[in-house]
Amino acid sequence: MSNKHQYTVEILYHFNCGCCGHWWSYAVTPFTQPVEIGLSDTKVHCMHCGHTLTAEIKEGFWLEKNAK
Asked: Each residue of 5-19: b (16+ CB within 10 Å) or e?
């Protein structure tokens, strides 16, 4: 036993298909710090309908851009 709690870090991507509208999630364990996330210009396959499209982050997601 240890006298400390231990944790791991996980990035969870939530996708909505541009064709069928269904959603799914994809988890990634980052291996570098700081973590660079972003899927611009990356093709992502929809497991529901089979379409492969470029991914883009949802408008208004980046909270630091909206900080007051």
From this structure: eeeeeeeeeebebee
Give phi and psi for 31, each to the nearest 5: -115, 5
Which among 37, 32, 36, 29 has a CA at the least distance from the CA of 10? 29
**Is pLDDT of 19 > 90?**
yes
pLDDT digits 0-9 by tens, 28-67: 887 766 666 556 567 889 999 999 998 888 888 776 655 5
Does an H or E element contain 16, and which?
strand 11-16
Taking alpha carbons only, the member of 37, 45, 47 closest to residue 9 is 37
